[in-house]
Design a protein that fits this description.
Length: about 800
Amino acid sequence: MKMITTLAAANNKKNKVRSILVIAAVFFTTLLLTIIATCGYGMMESQRVNAGRLYGTYYGTYTGVREDQFARMKQRGEFKKSGVMATAGEVEGKADISLIYSDSSVLEMTNQKRNLSQGRFPVKENEITASPDFFRQLGYDSVKPGDRIVLNSRESMSQKYKKREFAVSGVLKDYESNIKGTSFYGLVSKSYYDSVIPDAGHVYTAYFQLSDSVSISYDTAEETMKNLAQKCGIDPKGVSVNGYYLMWKLDPGIENITICAGISLLVILFSVVVIYHIFQVGIAQKVQEYGKIKALGATRRQMKKLVFREGMLLALTAVPFGVAAGYGIGSALTRILMMKSSSVQPGMPPLEMVSCFSLPLLIFCGVLSLAAVWIALKRPMRIVAKISPVEAMKYQENSSPKKIRRSRKALSVWGLTKSNLTAYWKRTLKTILAMGLSCVLFVALSSFAGSIDNEYNARKEVEHGQFVLSLDYSMNDTAYPENNLDSILKNNPLGQKTIEKIKGMDGVTDVTSRKYLYMTEGNNTYSVMVLNREDFEKHAGEGGILGDMDYEKASRENGIFYGWSNFIGDSGYRIGQKISSNLEDGSTSQNYEAVIMGSFGSLDTDWAITEDTYRKLGLENANASGTVWVDCSQEDLGKVASALEQLSDENDHISMDSYENQLNLSRSASRVMQFAVYAFMAVIGIISFMNMANTMIISIITRKQELGILQAIGMTSGQLNRMLQMEGLFFSVGTLLVSFVIGIPAGYAVFYYAKTHSYFGMNIYHFPWIQILAMTIVIIALQLILSWLLSRNVKKESIVERIRYQG
């Protein structure tokens, strides 16, 4: 055993070039695997740790809970933690401002305790805690604990506002946000709630966590919570699941694991091909040497062990460095990705940075790399084990007794190049395919990354112009029915009067609008948008559509379209179903019977009809606008933005966004994605380039004697340089042809799949000519540099030394 290990180490020491190439290939393989695993683990760990920070740590809520029902919840062992929250009134103001009572458990489960910046939560009847934004809405700046404020509030819609004085007991953290029209709340004490709400009117929203004894998954959470609600006498219809939290709390991140596993398999595939080829080429040149070892009495098993240990000794040298470097780079990339993610989610609390270190995971990456080497060595081990000492003495790579050598009158540089490449055609073909496949992957992923259209993505949010004003409405707000769409349309803040006011603003060049309707079908209420031909066809071309998206046919037959194709099945509707409903535009209503003709991928409303259908129904209310787009020149952006922000701030049912804002968010998100794609491809490219380098180096080493003889009979150094460059260019051109022939169609297929599934920013296919040009330049440049270095290395030895070389 020791002798085989010693012999393997000696072979590696003798074949320095092969050893360096194998170590480099294994190092980069381990590096990339560790980076992928570290980033995947880090992102999943970040999501798990920050899920509670972002979405609260409660599993769900029950609405309309009385005190006796909550008492039953407290008695049941299925609930690990529970608490109550209730509305104690609303505050007079331009925005939606509420007074809320939350007990200690709810404060903890909704992160309010974490968000407390100064002071404490209210205990006395006249105490209040809120964010600086809340106080600013009331006209108070720089509020601190101990200050006193005055506000007007009421407990129900039937009461008039009363002036009340509060002492500020605490101040919550204030996170920057670009979201307009959001709600604000102040936290009050139980004493205040009891003083303004009679005992008979105490109705709570119960927040809860379930104990570990309850068998629950993300898919079964709602049903489990409904069953528990019935046991406590609570109406199951009031169940609300904290889906985002449960997704990361209960789901180990199957999607992330699948993505990481798929990328890792690609890395392993390329690594196996490269390492296998390096050993295959090396064995072909050392058949006679292995034959001598076999002649000295080595068994088939010992010959396999010899090759296995040669590979594993090199791999064990590279793996620790690859794991260490991969963990360092992966941790840094994860941190960058987390920071980038935070930057594209304004208004959210800063993410807690997590450690990406997992010893079992790092060990697994190392073992996976060693497994890749073992797979790559399987065939070389079988080849060496089958070598016969007699056949080994006669062996010449790619020799065939049936072939007859055809002589030529004169030798040329191209003739010598072609002769070498065709003599070892299997090796040449494998090298081109190995490099070509990595370039195919590069072209395919470049087609995807290069087709991300940030402008298109921004235009999905702001369809026209530079700014968008939208109605901020509810559909079934029983507590505040004035917030529902039907009520808002009757006194629409985006009506014709507002539109004329916008048109008169300094700098505004164009104003367009879209009508919104209110639809009632049975006991259900829905929002409906009216689409003109241009907008209909644009949305129909965005992907994810179902059914017959024909504007003319829909107008002729008064058809209707569902707004979200992914959820049409869950909603109980189907294509071709006939519905009977009532449509309202704020001033008139019409009975409406229609057939569901199709579904858009995603709209801002539940349903959509065509503009022609809208007119035929006689719904011509000029004040039914639900969205208004405003355009202006680039020079007037700031001026118009200020005027529109003032208009938005004056009405809590209007929200505002800008094309520039959405474009910046889209660019930030796409940069993260493109950075990850191109970083991955860079390492894959390095691993694959090792293959070409190995082939050319081995070719020159094994032909040292031949090259020496050629120079002895008259070949000049310039001709030698050209021959090596031609060989390298042949590999490069072959690689590029494979990447073009397979990669371009594959890239379009990737784009088409992404577009039809409504992936981020997929609109029009952009041929990745810049990426392909860059890839071509890099491949040819690396090949020319490699050829030059090899030629220079060959000329360091004298012709006599090269002729004497025996391999």
